[in-house]
């Protein structure tokens, strides 16, 4: 791959309040043969402050950059990218032509996805914490597009309470509101960059929902994006080298191993008292 080809690969972000279906959407997008969407980490935010304005890349700076990337715990533990192989891959490009955006694209292209791939035209990153780092993302990837996923705040709170040490409903409600207001503020500045979809609409009509998402991101909708479960379960059950993150996914996001359904809609009605 050349620098010119690398520049043509598009980048996108899935942004939302945590527990809004981002892991489901990330897995759907990753099942597309032309897309790679790694596990969430914060490597972009981690290195942005130090390297975003760097214009004079050389061999020494690239090696330091790689060391800094591996300081991110989730990237180091769950992306399963060999440091020596990554270093060799990055140094195969003319380093003086690199910038932070291109370096990150190379790293994302090295993610060992479980789905079959053809020509990669899109890289997708999802992380609920990105709601407070949108300007940083835009600085590194000025041409990126965004998918804003919104879930009913009551179901979102009910879901967060299961794993979050904070149980106060008022505090969690403010978190939902603040994250989505930040995203809406960013959307007001860049309306053509962001496609908003409700979680409830995505799981109720996944084909229609994904078709709209794919159109916005400039990729073709593929049926395998809906039926990713069998491939995912097969990899978890049969691949001895499978990344630990998948087993964690099935523990914390058990619905990933099931067909897409609406069973998580309106759960709050059974869990919350009227008060």
Using only C-alpha atoms, the radius of gyration works out to: 19 Å
Averaged pLDDT: 92
Oligomer: single chain
Roughly what fraction of the amino acids lie in strands?
5-15%
Task: Count every helix, treating DSSP H or I runs of 4 or more residues as helices.
Answer: 15
Let me know the largest β-sheet.
Answer: 5 strands, parallel
In short:
With 275 residues, the chain is an alpha/beta fold. The chain has helices at residues 3-8, 22-30, 43-51, 59-69, 73-78, 83-91, 100-109, 134-140, 153-161, 169-189, 199-204, 206-217, 229-238, 244-252, 268-271, and strands at 10-15, 35-36, 122-126, 145-150, 194-198.
Structural commentary:
By secondary structure, the protein is of the alpha/beta class. It is built from 15 helices and five strands. 50% of the residues lie in helices and 9% in strands. The chain has a five-stranded parallel β-sheet, sandwiched between helices. The longest helix has 21 residues, at 169-189. It is globular, with a radius of gyration of 19 Å. The protein starts with a helix and ends with a helix. The mean pLDDT is 92.
